[in-house]
């Protein structure tokens, strides 16, 4: 099966560039923007040879997994564009719900799960299944000469394989017993993106996105440890604020708002964040 866009995505003017193997779909999308691409372009591949995650970490995408990047062009408000990562998380969770048969994925996150979603969203950019990382999302941007910014919304999903040597649990759809391929998942993702982007509505619907995200949040109300620039803060995952920043209630009762950090739940949070 070849990669293709959902009819809703085609009707809304999205375009598709599909590859078997690339270096990085994010890098390729940003190159297109610098060369004058108008955006609303999906760049997808079955394999990435030099993918990356947050903070420059390597993100392997072996053949059969999904590497997808949506290129969008925005004005000068990069802070608002950063919330597109939450739109992407919801779109991917919706796509996974659509293509993975019910009963294939168990629910649970080391005692911190809300117990209502097969696929949970871990702040700020991961999708979990059975408490393990199934997918990651990475936003990268580049300034364009006309004052606008190109934003590459990268989505990597472990469809057939996952890295075995990570410091946290990871999994793949295949390891969880869910059949399917990258092409089928991307078709559903392109459809789900359109629906969630309409809800986001260029930022005017961020409140609705926030509420939906919290309904899918991993670890909400549970023990959490957040590593911030070498130090670790512990407490309870309280909420995300109106700008989608992480809010933790420290053990003394103080509320702390965090814009960037590595989050650990459950037993890992209790023992230490690594």
UniProtKB/TrEMBL annotation:
UniProt entry keywords in alphabetical sequence: ATP-binding, Biotin, Ligase, Nucleotide-binding
Q: Where is the BPL/LPL catalytic domain?
A: 15-201
Asked if Cell membrane is a keyword of the record, the answer is: no
Q: Does the keyword Ligase apply?
A: yes
Question: What is the catalytic activity of this protein?
Answer: biotin + L-lysyl-[protein] + ATP = N(6)-biotinyl-L-lysyl-[protein] + AMP + diphosphate + H(+)
Q: Which InterPro entries match?
A: aa-tRNA-synth_II/BPL/LPL, Biotin_CoA_COase_ligase, BPL_C, BPL_LPL_catalytic, Transcriptional_repressor_C
Q: Which Pfam families match?
A: BPL_C, BPL_LplA_LipB
GO molecular function annotations of the record = ATP binding; biotin--[biotin carboxyl-carrier protein] ligase activity
Q: What is its EC number?
A: 6.3.4.15
Gene3D superfamilies hit by this protein: 2.30.30.100, Bira Bifunctional Protein, Domain 2
Gene Ontology terms: cellular component: cytoplasm
UniProt protein name: biotin--[biotin carboxyl-carrier protein] ligase
| Organism whose genome encodes this protein | Manganibacter manganicus
